[in-house]
Amino acid sequence: MSCLFCRIASGEIPSSKVGENEGAFAFLDIQPLARGHVLVIPKQHAERFADMPRESARAVMDLAQDVVGRLGKRLGAHGVTIAANDGRAAGQEVMHVHVHLVPRAEADGHGPIHALFKTRAELKAGELQEIAEKLAPR
Ligand code: AMP
Prior knowledge:
binds adenosine monophosphate, single chain, 5-stranded antiparallel β-sheet
């Protein structure tokens, strides 16, 4: 097993475990963006979000929801940024799905995820509808 996060989920590599359920494991990020920065991963290996079996995705979101609650109640987070870098183009470095839970404080100065993007996409008239149609289930 060569995947770093598979080895963390199995306990082969130590981590600061925060919780787990049948299909997911949560631990502290080793280079936290904020105090209490947690990563939630599926126990079953999947590189990308779309590769994840539904049960893994549900387990990850269930555990993320539990941990988000604890970040507020026990660490006093005012808010939490919940984000996943999916694919190298989006900045994914570890190729095993992980959801970042980053505790936020009022006026911490980091802004919303929208602050990552300095510009907005320019769409022609009707393009929103075209895109929505492309993305609708077939
Ligand atoms: P990403 O850029 O979304 O792939 O994020 C990968 C994250 O994994 C980074 O925030 C790293 O700090 C974190 N990370 C890498 N190795 C470890 C490790 N051994 N234990 C905990 N977090 C890690």
